[in-house]
Amino acid sequence: MSHTFTNVVLHVIFSTKDRRPLIKDAFRPQLFQYMGGIARNEFGKALIFG
């Protein structure tokens, strides 16, 4: 009997236009928590944010 194992790893990078620092430092932890929640609900787990 054959077994198949698949491990899909995505490396996603995004930036603001002209790499302007629009995300305030006080808001950054909440944003990363929100993005981690989306990652868990949609496709698995997020290894690193930030």
Helix content: 25-40%
Query: How many DSSP-defined strands?
Result: 0
State which percent range the strand residues make up.
Answer: under 5%
Q: Could you tell me how far the N terminus lies from the C terminus, measured between alpha carbons in angstroms?
A: 42 Å
Q: Largest sheet, described in full?
A: none
The averaged pLDDT comes out at: 84
Low-confidence stretches: none
What spatial form do the alpha-carbon principal axes imply?
elongated
Supply the helix-strand structural class: mainly alpha
- Whole-angstrom Rg: 15 Å
Number of helices: 1
Descriptive account of the structure:
The structure is a single chain. With 50 residues, the chain is mainly alpha-helical. The protein has one helix and no strands. It has one helix at 28-42.
